[in-house]
Amino acid sequence: MFSFFKRFKKPADDAPLDTLLEESVETEEDEEISDAELEQQALEASAERVEEIEPVSVPAPAAPQATESKEYWQGHTQSQWSRGPETDQASEEILPPPEPDPVAKKSWLSRLRNGLSKTSNNLTGIFVSAKIDEDLYEELETALLMSDAGVDATEYLLESLHEKVRAERLTEAAQVKNALRELLIDLLRPLEKTLMLSRAQPLVMMIAGVNGVGKTTSIGKLAKHLQRFNQSVLLAAGDTFRAAAREQLTVWGERNNVTVIAQESGDAAAVIFDAVGAARARKIDVMMADTAGRLPTQLHLMEELHKVRRVIAKAMPDAPHEVLLVIDGNTGQNALAQVKAFDDALGLTGLIVTKLDGTAKGGMLAAIARQRPIPVYFIGVGEKVEDLQPFSAEEFADALLG
Question: Is the model's pLDDT at 7 over the cut of 50?
Fold first, then answer.
């Protein structure tokens, strides 16, 4: 609803699919299989895909309205858009994303404030009739630590606030509160980044995360967002281990009229390999691959994800173009540990933060900004499709200190 992307000129059609899959991933059931046997299993799975892997119940999306357009839309706020170069042909018109509905926008901000109300109440209560003294800073330190901001981010914010208060000679509690808001926005601003589309066809996105963070649900919501920008989407059910993961993704595919490439059992890498091939053959704009939930402490499972990433590169040399990690907003400092582990293993390009509608404290984004500033593309505050929206540093700071 309020999401914003950049659209760039798409490259020429990619080269044909590679005909040989050189490596695949080891399964959880048998970790002792040799690499040669793994490779043979992956080749056999790929060779049998015509019989075993079928698109799930929904027709392939229509071709995009403009495949060679030079026109793009970009912006850093949902209400400001700038138009790029004109198209070569009048027939290559691309519609801009819909303007945000003021009522819906207000509703979204209200849900975000409600989701972060616990932290907001702790922080804003400190400034009520407060004196600018050491007691104020001690209370603020406690509140920031309780919000999961972590020691590093807390020390940074307090030291910067001390300097700002002295430099600007602030004497009122409201002024100090506003100064903290500005510092928080500056800290979070590097996490605010636009997801660029049309860099490749298809744009391959690999989605990772631990079990229970809302990974598959986020894929379904993101698919709906992409369709609002005239993007055709294809999904790959690469989570072949979790019960009902395939069925859950299929339901989202049916809701959005999106094709899902799935297999009842077998190798996840083979499924994703075939999905990339199908997306290239059908000239799909975006292909999103779901993956099995992995605990970052289990190194052999993280290595399996890394192998899946290499298999994607076999299907398309420059893929995946985006590697996104879905994290639960309620996990606090554990979320930072997940970001570090998955980034080291996969090379993350972006984050999706979910479940900011419960007991989430929100301060962990400050910790991520200080220690591993990976862009936060989206945040989620509910179960509905419109509850997944682009991250805005200013809106997030206002929800914490508004």
Answer: no
